[in-house]
Amino acid sequence: MKTSAFILPAIAVVIGLLLSSVYVVDEREKALVLQFGQIRQVREEPGIGFRIPFIQEVVKYDARTLGLDTEEIEVTPSDDRRLVVNAFARYRIDDVVQFRQAVGVGGIRVAEDRLGSILNASIREVLGADQVTSDTILSGERRLLMNRIRDRAQAEAEGLGLRVVDVRLKRTNLPEQNLEPTFARMRAEREREAADEVARGNEAAQRVRALADRTRTETLSEAERDANITRGEADAEANRIFAEAYGADPEFFDFYRSLQAYEQALKGQNSTMVMTPTSDFFRYLYSADGGLSPGAPPAGAAAPAPAPAAD
């Protein structure tokens, strides 16, 4: 009975020691087995490991790719336009032994503080270079600048056992006190460009109008010339026809021309003519008894001369 009283506690102690000596490394972790602060074993593969209880301890670190946001800092590119910049970095623990030796018991917290300082220094160094302007930072060359920041940060982060996978500039803005002057300058530049475009448009419109006016003038001149030619040809043809008609029957031709003269002279609603009754103008309106009728002039009156041709 006394023996069993000692055996059961001993068995419990042995089981407790065995359980405390076993540790498990997850696939997302890296582990170090420490003995009195010294590294005795490195476990980077997932699985079960053993340690000496109460003498050795297991420290685990995240083996995944981690993210870090840097603080906002002001940088001054070569064109002296200050910018407020912050970045986002992706990193992972590459050498767990070197990482432990560099940061000690502080772990990830201390490592991120030191990495943030490294990133800020790299950002200032790259963005403040001689050939880097604010326009370069905001242009398509931004990616090349981020790669240069990553490479410079990686060169210093190796001493911490870290691998800087990527760096991205999140915010690239002007300081608050510089925003309004910058916006005013941008507005002035855009207004100048708009005025230039309007001036070029007016110049092009003036050229188009001048060309249209010249084309219109030339077209009208050509049309007037053709019309004059046509009218001349028509008048010549009419004169020819009149000349042939006069040669064929002079009396009928005189009668026709007189009728045309009457038509031209008696136009309108209130036409008045003052002339002698025996005027040659009315020769075709006299009757044989002295009345107004087509035929010969009144008796005793001299035969009127042929009426002049009316234009």
How would you characterize this protein structure?
The protein has 311 residues and is α+β, with helices and mostly antiparallel strands. It folds into four domains: 9-62, no CATH class; 66-174, Band 7 domain (Tetrahydropterin Synthase, Chain A), CATH 3.30.479; 180-248; 251-311, no CATH class. It contains seven helices and nine strands. Strands 6, 7, 8 and 9 form a four-stranded antiparallel β-sheet that branches. It has a three-stranded antiparallel β-sheet with strand order 3-2-5, with no helix packed on it. Helix 2 packs across helix 3 (107-127) and helix 3 (107-127) packs across helix 5 (142-157).
- Give me the Rg, rounded: 58 Å
Give a short account of the largest sheet: 4 strands, antiparallel
CATH-level-2 architecture of the largest domain: 2-Layer Sandwich
Number of helices: 7
| DSSP, total strands | 9
Report the sheet-strand fraction: 15-25%
Coarse shape: rod-shaped
User: If you average the pLDDT, what whole number results?
Assistant: 80
Which spans have pLDDT < 50 for at least 5 consecutive residues?
292-311
